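Dear all,

This email documents one entry for the complex benchmark we are building for the journal club exercise. For each entry we list the sequence lines for every component of the assembly. Then comes the predicted three-dimensional structure of the complex as a token string, followed by one or two observations. Please use this as the template for your own entries, and keep the labels exactly as they appear.
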Amino acid sequence: MSDFSLTILFASVLATAAPLIIAALGETITEKVGVINLSLDGSMLLAAMVGFMVSYESGSLVLGFGAAALVGAVIAIVVGLFGIYLGLLQVAVGFALTLMCKDLAYFLGNPYSRLQGPQMLSIKIPVLSDIPFLGPVLFQQPLIVYVALILIGAIWWYLFQTERGLELRAVGENPEAAYTRGIDPRRKQLLYTAIGGALIGLAGAAYSLGIKPGWGRPQGIEGLGWIALAIVIFGGWHPIKVALGAFLFAFLQVIGITLQGIWPSVPAQVFQVAPFPLMIFALVMVNLLQREGVQGWVKAHPMLQRFIKQLQGVPPRALGKSYHPD
Amino acid sequence: MQVEFQQVHKQFGTVQALRGIDMRVEGGTIHGLVGENGAGKSTLMKILTGYLTKSSGRILLDGVEVDCSDPQVAAGHGIGMLYQEPQDFPPLNVLENFIVGRDCDHDLNRTEQRERLTQLADKVHFTLHPNDVLEKLTVGERQQLEFLRLLGREARVLILDEPTTGISDQQKMLLFQALRQIRDEGCTIILVSHKLDEVEALCDRVTILRHGQVTGEASAPFKVSELLEMMFDKPPSVDVVDHHYHPGGELLRFKGVTAAGERVGLHDCSVSIRQGDVVGLAGLSGSGQGLFLRLAAGLATRREGMLEFVGQSMDKLNHKAFRQQGGVFLPSDRLRQGLIPGFTIRDHFALAAGLSSAAAQQAAEQAIAQFHIRGTPETLAESLSGGNQQRLQLALIPKSARMVLLESPTRGLDVESAHKIWRFLRGDFADQGAIVFSSPELDEILEVANRVLVFFEGRVVRDLLADELDYEHIAAAMTGK
Amino acid sequence: MRGVKQHVTEIALILGMVTLFTALVLSLVGASPLDAFGHLIKGSLGSWSKFSRVLNVWIPLTLCSVGLLYAFRTGLWNIGVEGQVVIGAIGATAILRFGMEGGGQMHVWMALLLAMLFGVLWALFAGSLKVKAGVHEIFAGLGLNFVAMGLVLWVIFGPWKRPGIASMSGTQPFPRELWFPTLEGWRVSPFALGLALLVIVISAWLLYRSRVGLNLDAVGKNPRAVRLFGLSPSRYMLIAIMVSGALAGLAGGLQVSGVYHRLIPAISSGYGYLGLLVVMLANFRLAPVPFIALFFAALNVGSIQLPMMMQLDSSLAGVIQGACVLSALLVFGLRGLKKRRQSNE
């Protein structure tokens, strides 16, 4: 491969990964506080549609992104209210919302199909973008890519370096104990579920207003919500590893398109399912590694242990369980 | 700070957990709160910390009535509690666990918090590493951390609920030392315990609870026999059974069994149970009795040792084999572990014996009559009272059973029903096999058992036969004396 | 009597909320709710041929939903039902391709059997991942759904591609001899209908009257206690998910041999996912399932009219279906909350 096409490859991996990173980080926050928002696949699509519609009508990208974030947050709040306060199964609510939001997006978005709307253009960062190779890869991207990259660090910092982030994680691990320490677990859960939802909404708009501009049925992002959910597990609920998971997936996707040129008879969708067996494999590994027998064996191989430690992600202990005072 | 309770009541549904508690704790003292399981000690303390709300009554701090309606408010009054089950966050590290919470100082940054933690630890001679993940720590170390956290918050009233369960002797010594030190600095300490040796060693004054009421108070130095008398009901007159003991062939054998679980685990346990044994497992709750029963039933895994049931080695988790050989296990948490919520009495019979609907109906009707279960074949398990749930569990035992393991079989039952249950069990199973049961009530054990194993901290510390059974001796062994 | 009254009130409440929500959505796009509802009804029940189409949707949807009930009975979310339909369809196609030259009814029944077997194996895969390796069945199932999607695309574009050009329109259609049997003049096969009804009847007996059904129910209600009754929870979970897979596979096989007469990428038509909604709305009971499935099928078919008649997208059906489930969840949740409040006092 020539130097030039490598640049394109990496640049497009970065761009493809950006919305996924944002969505997966939103879900990471949500799950870290102990709530499963299973509605991703639908809420991203609805947010993508609303984002496109609003900026098409208003001509403002900012308004579009704002509306998309709002849509994501509202859906997340529904999951939160139903799950946290009514004590319903969070996965049931999330799943029903996924299917409904998807159809709602197609239905309401119908008049906006195949229209030319506003979209984000790449921003060239002066000086930096002139660096050979790195410049075009890192510094000639749409704004949303920079946002995604900054979010990785910001969310890591918030979760692991601030008091609020500490409280967030504490609630996801043990809401009862958090309550004895004067924290209202349900309010925290609702708040962070909403914030996570807003990020998921942003991710949706990042597609319709930038990475895959426009609106239509199919939009071409169907299934990506599920992939984002899988990436959260793959990344062990850790923002940086989650982001790496998103890059890996984006890489597979981009390489898939390249490979399609080599084997034109194999449809792109075949390459797109690759992350799923990978995810299942990762989950099996994570679970098997926690067995006592395997752990003993691992301890005997220090090199292996170090590698496996990186693979091991433990879900927040209160994940998906509703907390009821008294 | 002085703490006073006036006529505090607490009701859970139809159960009266506290029936008018009047109690005063003087400032700058260590005050013991003792009583057997279910006496209401933890409930009373959880009300003080705002974790539970009282049904009626008043709480006064230094003579002023206060409202402790949620943990944040109570913490604001300077009340802090070390819960029996550590209320912490195992995946987080020591420092993070020290910091988290709305009930403490938020002005400090992480470096300052770390210094504070180290200072406090040095002060009371604890060794904790701020970066260790809590999961790797022992229960004792987790408790030390929680203790330091409360100190750091400058709690003026410190409640400790069974703080020494599952911790090492050295950790216990350190803790006691620290407690005396902060008492001398003016902190008020309430020690909830049923281990009398600890109360004796530490407390200035003690209040005794029984069945949700105060049954007595005493000041140091204490007379253990008097405390025991106030803690437990009067040593009973034995009337239900004779203590004739004719052991038959061996049914169950533990040989050097060690297992983890239920906090203290079980260590190097070697016991042989023979036909005709009615074995009572005595001990403070959570001293290893439950794990012993689950190991015997093939429901828990052992780490070392050997286990045999009717001459066959039980290799792994195999409750089915245990059942097929005539074993039965009845857990104490009837609704969560023993019965199926959402199933009717009839469904339970159909499930247990593989009966058709009509046959199950008949079996259910019979059992309802024989065991005086208050309900119909269509009554759901969860809408039965505790006593009736237990009768249902008993009714489900197959007639061919040779080994019946019961965990707290009469928990929550009145005397009359308890007697009926024992008459049934002893009549039907004692002769053809063996019964092993645990009970938090020593009276009950003395009343029905012809052999007693006393558990303390995950070890069998006494194995006594009928003619050696002595109330005070067992009570002392249970409390580590 | 009070129970009946409560049910009626709840159903009325759910329908009221759904109607309001749908009307709101319709007015957002400037369409008349009355017209839209009219077209939905006319498009699904307006003629015998339209109703036949509804029944053609009802059959696989009911099979999937009933299958899901088995898994739910043991507390498992067999979200992988979608992939099990697809795999079943692939299995059926494999057999039918053998019969392309002079095959007959024998091949059709063999195809359905293999479809069920494929469904069972695919479900067993997800189930084993759950009980043996501790992977949550939602993720195992979803992952396998996407893998199944990849597989179906691969066979259509690869080994089984149409002579000449591979395309999204699917494999080479099968000759008439390999179609699932039907009667002259029927647009829906009465035999397939009968098969679905048979499945319902047998399931009613299996789930509510048989010993296996009781054991499955016990496993779902209290897996811990079930051990004390000498049952192995994981074994019953596997049995349940395998039955689930068998019925989903059968649905897939019927889609191939009875409806499309070839393998297409969208062979499942999303009936697996829709089945999950049906079962949730039925509150996990069998009795309402056939009726809810019929209602959902009617919505699916009726909404096909919308793009032509009102320039609306046909996804309105999905919006209504989702709204039904969410309203029902809300009603159930409020009922539970009320109950908890009462028992606390």
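Observations: Residues 235-240 of chain B have pLDDT under 50 and may be disordered. Chain B has two domains: 3-231, 250-326+398-478.
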